[in-house]
Amino acid sequence: MTVTDLTTIPFNRTYVSGNELDYLAQALRQGSTCGDGPFTARAAELLGGITGARRVLLTTSCTHALEMSAILLDLRPGDEVIVPSFTFMSTANAYALRGAVPVFADCRPDTLNLDERLLEAAVTDRTRAVVVVHYAGVACEMETITEICDRHGLALVEDNAHGLGGSYRGRPLGSFGRMAAQSFHGTKNVQCGEGGALLLNDADLAARAEIIREKGTDRGRFFRGQVDKYRWVDIGSSYLPSDVLAAQLTSQLEDFETIQSRRRSVWRAYHEGLAGWAARNGVRRPAVPDGCEHPAHLYYLLLPDLDNRQAFIHHLAARGVQAAFHYQPLHSAPAGVRLGRVAPGGCPVTEEVADRLVRLPLFAGLDEAGVARVIEAVLAYEVR
Ligand SMILES: *Cc1c(COP(=O)(O)O)cnc(C)c1O
């Protein structure tokens, strides 16, 4: 069934690249479905190729990869970690779990990424790390951010859930931080339902990361014959995915170029098809600064206000198009207020864009007829 046979064009749909069933059968027949099997190794190798990371550890989710990064940073209660307010809660929750205080910074009005001009004012003598999110896969201003982190001795972590395959001045996203976290959740460009990876660009972290991922044991060394028994040597948890999930992920990663080019063509069709309508209606389309290649993770529009955004979503739904709003500010969320604090100046841009933003359907299986239907439905809306 093609997408256009559906009465409603869904916001997202799992893309099947073709080899999944074959690989899943292989994974089931290989005699063990535990983690760190052949498909886990293959998926990690493919990810290393895309991101240039020195070491890739597949995890059960991006949330867990972020939690591993928090353990690796040895955060202590009261340490501060600067995060954007406009992001998924895991970006902050991972550090709050270690007793650290998330400090919420505002985003840039154009890219909706952490505003590098506000970063330095958020640094205190308790700050230990900065976590950036490349929203929609469009890079943060990495030159300025890296320079500020270096000058203040802060660790940089990339929550690269949106950015796989994107780049900043020719360098892959995920290669800037000491660590980067990827997501393979069913809503991301490359998927296995639930899954993630921790990318390590600092080779010194690799040995401890492996232990943390294996419940705090040196089991990896034991399987390699480097120790004669494995023991509990550090804190950790169970962050290793089954090789069955890695089989699905491998199939998608092998088809990465096709997935990306299909998503890019949907993105471009929206961007071109909606340019005149957006200009007439005071709607803002995504901004992509020079030097940023993005992986078409999502296509968003900024309506003039909340009333128009809500009316627009209802208008599209009535025409069989499922659109979605996105992140609600973390600094004013119940847990954000309790566990974190807001950076000087507050987060006025985050508050405003959270109310105005809407995302259109975007997935690799969305065909031309489906895209045309979405565009037609959008063009029929007039901002009031
Ligand atoms: C999806 C997402 C996550 C969480 O990913 P999971 O793999 O579901 O844990 C974290 N951060 C951002 C920015 C995301 O988009």
UniProtKB/TrEMBL annotation:
**Biological process (GO), any one:** polysaccharide biosynthetic process
Give the SUPFAM superfamilies listed for this entry: PLP-dependent transferases
Source organism:
Streptosporangium becharense
Top-level EC class? transferase
Active-site residues per Swiss-Prot or TrEMBL entry: K188 (proton acceptor)
Annotated protein name in UniProt: dTDP-4-amino-4,6-dideoxygalactose transaminase
The record's listing under InterPro entries reads: DegT/StrS_aminotransferase, PyrdxlP-dep_Trfase, PyrdxlP-dep_Trfase_major, PyrdxlP-dep_Trfase_small, WecE-like
Native organism taxonomy: Bacteria, Bacillati, Actinomycetota, Actinomycetes, Streptosporangiales
In the UniProt record, does the keyword Electron transport occur? no
